[in-house]
Amino acid sequence: MEQKLYIYNTLSRRKEVFEPLHAPLVGMYVCGPTVYGNPHLGHARPAITFDLLYRYLTHIGYKVRYVRNITDVGHLENDADEGEDKIEKKARLEQLEPMEVVQFYTNRYHKVMDQLNVLSPSIEPHASGHIIEQIQAIHSIIESGYAYVSDGSVYFDVQKYDKDHDYGILSHRNIEEMLNTTRDLDGQNEKRSKVDFALWKKASPEHIMRWPSPWSDGFPGWHIECSAMSIKYLGQEFDIHGGGLDLMFPHHECEIAQNTAMEKHRVVKYWMHNNMITINGQKMGKSLGNFINLEEFFTGSHRMLAQAYAPMTIRFFILQAHYRSTVDFSNEALQAAEKGLNRLLDAYRAINRIKPAGNSSADVQGLRQKCYDALNDDLNSAIVLSHLYEAATIINSAVAGTVNLTQADIDEVRGLYDTFLFDILGIKDDKQQGNNSEAFGKAMDILLDIRAKAKENKDWATSDRIRDELTEAGFEIKDGKDGAEWKLK
Question: How many structural domains compose the chain?
Fold first, then answer.
């Protein structure tokens, strides 16, 4: 059955039917990390959110060209047009070449993305590898009349652009509000207005990361990289641009202005933003002492963590909430996510123990479309999980013999998990995976049958040995009136 997907477009502030510009190809650009530190929980949410979208679009038949950039130049401290480049500052402190810093933290980012089972994008361009494209984009904006050169730097003329278009169309801010709230910074005398933003910055003598340009030896501003690289790889019009809500202003607002100045039309059809992760109600930040990187979650090494949390627990925790809602971290919330995930995985492992009946006393056939309906409603992963919990209850009842399932029902509920939990939501069963799960379960059933026959024959030594060795190997064996049950600890 063909699925009709609705997604919330931040630009229009409403849900819209997803209709690709060049179906079946979908162009999707997502702002990736600035690689100057260890990946943290805030990096996980956009990665997992747009991984879910990537997986679902592919599942329903689209070919997706997914571009996720690496910011390795031009992102200055405090997201301003003055101060040190974040990567250059890290390089100076650690006495490394800037590209050593970039490579080190890019590798770490890729490692944790693999652990979170986030699929690699189709293209992962680096800003530093596209300086020529950024210079060409800046030329185009100058020619359009919306940028000016000042002492070797180039700035976007926001007020002039706003007269012809609408600067603030995405974040719904007005220019007067921005003029009143934008703080004064060093170097403002280069700008015509304090709301103007840098397209190119003339490098100071001590600045390491610099390139020749028609205006000066310098480096591109933070915002121009995404305009240049998204248009290079996805064309002058493409479908989806995504990122965290914190990027809506100024980064994405500036992108829209740059794109419109260059192309004279709207470039991106759908803008999508995931909401923030807070920690005990506070925004995550190093100054607050609540900044926890993902490796610390996986090892439990941060002082705020009560235990280590597996990567799939983190992924599941994020997917439990709709991507546009705020997620608040606490140990209690993560422990609840861990229990919820284990409940679903235990149910999946138990499917092989269901004895098929001639008729069914539970409705499992309608759950598949309910899961599709939830995903089609702006990727509502939380509702998908509620339907999978419903399936888990049916599975456990069938194992206990209080519900009858036909073989077709058993196949359907297994397919439900395979499609939605593992394929689309991207959960991995680290203890028992994929194609080996059925054979694995049958092998366990054979061992428990041997143990049951040993008990019937009062061969306690064999019975105890099988139980003890399975326990030592990491299995939990429970004897009940209907026989033994097992699960991985």
Answer: 3
| Assigned token pair, 85 | 């480049």
- CA 329 from chain centre, in angstroms, equals 16
C-alpha distances (whole Å) from 55 to each of 368, 424, 453 are 17, 5, 46
468 is in which domain, residue-wise? 436-488
Question: Do residues 185 and 248 both lie within one domain?
Answer: yes
Return the residue matching tokens 């100057």. Answer: 36
Are 243 and 304 part of one and the same domain?
no
Q: Report helix, strand or coil for 29.
A: strand
Beta carbons within 8 Å of 299's beta carbon, 6+ residues apart: 308
Q: What is the pLDDT of residues 96-141, one digit of tens each?
A: 899 999 999 999 999 999 999 999 999 999 999 999 999 999 999 9
Angle at 277 between CA 276 and CA 278, to 5 degrees: 115
Q: Can you list the alpha helix ranges (DSSP code H) found in 324-380?
A: 331-350, 367-376
Q: pLDDT (tens digit, 9 = 90+) per residue, 369-425? A: 999 999 999 999 999 999 999 999 999 999 999 999 999 999 999 999 999 999 999
Q: What angle do CA 10, 268, 270 make, to 5 degrees?
A: 35
- The answer to whether residues 200 and 138 touch, using CB atoms and an 8 Å cutoff, is yes
42 and 58 assigned to the same domain: yes
Q: What is the DSSP string of 23-76?
A: TTEEEEEE---B-SS--BHHHHHHHHHHHHHHHHHHHTT-EEEEEE-BB-SS-B
**Which phi and psi angles does 392 have, rounded to 5°?**
-60, -40
The position carrying tokens 């494209």 is 133
